[in-house]
Amino acid sequence: MTAFIENQNWRYATKRFDATKKISTDDLNSLKEAIRLSVSSYGLQPYKVIIVENPELRAQIQPAAWGQTQIVDASHLLIFANKTSVGDSEIDQFVENISKTREIPLEALSGYQAFMKDKIVGLPQETQNIWTSKQTYLAMGNLLNAAAELKIDVTPMEGFSPEKVNEILGLDALGLNASLIATVGYRHEEDATQHLKKVRKPEQDLFITL
Predict the structure, then answer these.
(1) Is there a domain that residue 209 lies in?
(2) CATH number for the domain including 61?
(3) What would the pLDDT profile of 146-196 be if each residue is shown by its tens digit?
(4) I need a surface site. Which of 48, 78, 127, 208 has the fewest CB within 10 A?
(5) Whole-model pTM?
(6) d(CA 60, CA 108)
(7) Residue 123's CB: how many other CB atoms inside 10 A?
(8) Are 50 and 81 in contact (CB under 8 A)?
(9) How many independent structural domains does the chain possess?
(10) Which domain holds residue 19?
């Protein structure tokens, strides 16, 4: 746990990336696996993670992200895109995956399958959209923690226009919505923010014990 806390103190929202430094394939695969293993409600993972490597696409996205330089300078750009709705087919596919992975007959999962459909499918689309968007934040947390362990910098971003990013990447046609952006790479030695003390609430102001 000591190493985990040290990593959390080391990491910060990097303001300037070193564009000459790239993440290795092995490290990128480790980050992808950390995201893949993230917790989510029911285990559904109602989102996609889009890794934008094309520099022309990244240049198009930059203005939609308030012109932030991290979009084009970071080694990798990840878009967490939530499913705007979840229907019977998504739940059926998930249950089939459970059956295959755990070698359980589909019939044995029918109750759980019906329970999920009852709780999720009937929700208004706006409610579903909010719920699935929240799931991307859980995945982002895994990315942040795994990257800190590898001493890789990540800047999580909400400062962008989802509508414009959706248009650039054609996400609407896929039933997806850009929920979060993560720029991933290595801090520039001239990024002054890395030398600032981390500002967080003191323990007594954050926790309530009942």
Answers:
(1) no
(2) 3.40.109.10
(3) 999 999 999 999 999 999 999 999 999 999 999 999 999 999 999 999 999
(4) 208
(5) 0.95
(6) 48
(7) 14
(8) yes
(9) 1
(10) 2-86+121-189
